[in-house]
Design goal:
Strand content: under 5%
Number of helices: 11
Oligomer: single chain
Helix content: over 70%
Number of strands: 0
Structural class: mainly alpha
Shape: globular
Length: 359
């Protein structure tokens, strides 16, 4: 005689093994992605470069230049522009390095005096011996720091490999990305091709819109920060503006962190009043970014709730660090756009259960 099994227990068991299978599949996907994350990052950067440079290549092609030559012109011009900006930043750092070291030492003394006074009342001896303890740590752990530097050289090799893959893939995406997508759709079953084509076009439209928008946000923030720091006389205004540009690619989090670094530099070099002005700048730029620029970005892509953006950034950072925080929001935007594009149209309000108008 078969034992009686509760329907609730039977249903729970059926759902449990399905959840186990799904969990194992998700774990396997993330394990593969973690194993080959450099390839994923390189292809993602290639798509970003394509989204930024393909419109410029199309303009050059309309001017009568062959497609291959147009791609080469746009890519080489962009590389020259990036290298020029990096050279400008390096020159600014080299020109202000001596002054910055001197001002930083004076700023450290100023910060120590400030922390020793009310309301902090920190121990002056502990603050005064901080620099000597840092020197002792460096001399004691010289071998560890050297091995860290050597591992950093290995990391640099990985970064260069990822950048090479990004440029290599961008060349093909800019030159004939539409033909690659048409070939991919042609390999699918005939019945699935229209839905895949619709999903791919919606995903690319959303990705390009988000990429253009976030670059606009980053450039606007960097210009505002650079001009403000230059007018306030804060050293290294150009490198700090460049830091703000890259930090803005992490929504809600990156810009305040970069401005906090600028505030520390302003406090060490120019004193608390300048630092207070830079701190007020954080609030002003945050308002501009939150109420003007980001709504514009999401109108070009998919409008996500700020809570969804915050959770996506946190989840991406937890899963893959800084790279995950950068990739999370465009990935969620693309997935949501595909869902909207593939969703069947809603029946009219007076339709019956089968979608046929009643009456």
């Amino acid at each position: 005689m078969r034992p009686h099994v509760s329907p609730l227990l039977r249903s729970a068991a059926a759902h449990a093994w399905r959840l186990l299978v799904v969990g194992a599949a998700v774990y396997a996907v993330f394990a593969v992605l973690g194993r080959f994350h450099e390839i994923g990052v390189g292809l993602f950067l290639g798509l970003v470069i394509t989204a930024m440079l393909r419109p410029a290549a199309d303009i050059v092609v309309r001017g009568g230049v062959p497609r291959g030559a147009a791609v080469a012109i746009v890519l080489l011009g962009s590389i020259a522009l990036v290298l020029g900006v990096l050279a400008l930043v390096g020159e600014a750092v080299a020109g202000e390095s001596t002054t910055l070291v001197r001002e930083f030492r004076v700023g450290l003394d100023r910060i120590e005096d400030w922390l020793a006074r009310p309301p902090f009342h920190l121990d002056e001896d502990a603050l005064t011996g901080l620099q000597s303890r840092i020197g002792e740590y460096v001399s004691t752990h010289r071998s560890t720091l050297l091995s860290t530097a050597l591992s950093g050289a290995g990391t640099l090799a990985h970064v260069l490999a990822v950048l090479a893959l990004a440029l290599f893939s961008a060349v093909f995406f800019i030159h004939a990305g539409h033909r690659h997508w048409a070939w991919f759709c042609a390999q699918l079953p005939v019945g699935a091709r229209p839905r895949w084509d619709t999903a791919g076009r919606a995903a690319w439209r959303t990705f390009t819109g988000y990429t253009h928008g976030i670059v606009l946000v980053a450039a606007t923030n960097a210009i505002l920060v650079g001009v403000a720091l230059y007018l306030l006389g804060v050293p290294l205004a150009v490198p700090l503006a460049l830091l703000e540009f890259f930090a803005a690619f992490v929504p809600l989090v990156g810009s305040p962190v970069a401005l906090a670094v600028a505030t520390v530099v302003a406090l060490a070099a120019n004193g608390p009043w300048t630092a207070a002005v830079v701190l007020a700048l954080i609030v002003i730029i945050g308002q501009i970014e939150g109420h003007l620029l980001h709504p514009l970005v999401m109108s070009w892509a998919v409008r996500l709730h700020p809570l969804v953006v915050a959770v996506s950034v946190l989840a991406g950072a937890t899963a893959a660090g800084v790279v995950g925080a950068v990739v999370a929001v465009p990935l969620v935007s693309v997935l949501w756009a595909v869902r909207i594009a593939l969703r069947p149209p809603a029946p009219p309000p007076d339709a019956g259960p089968s979608g046929v108008p009643a009456g």
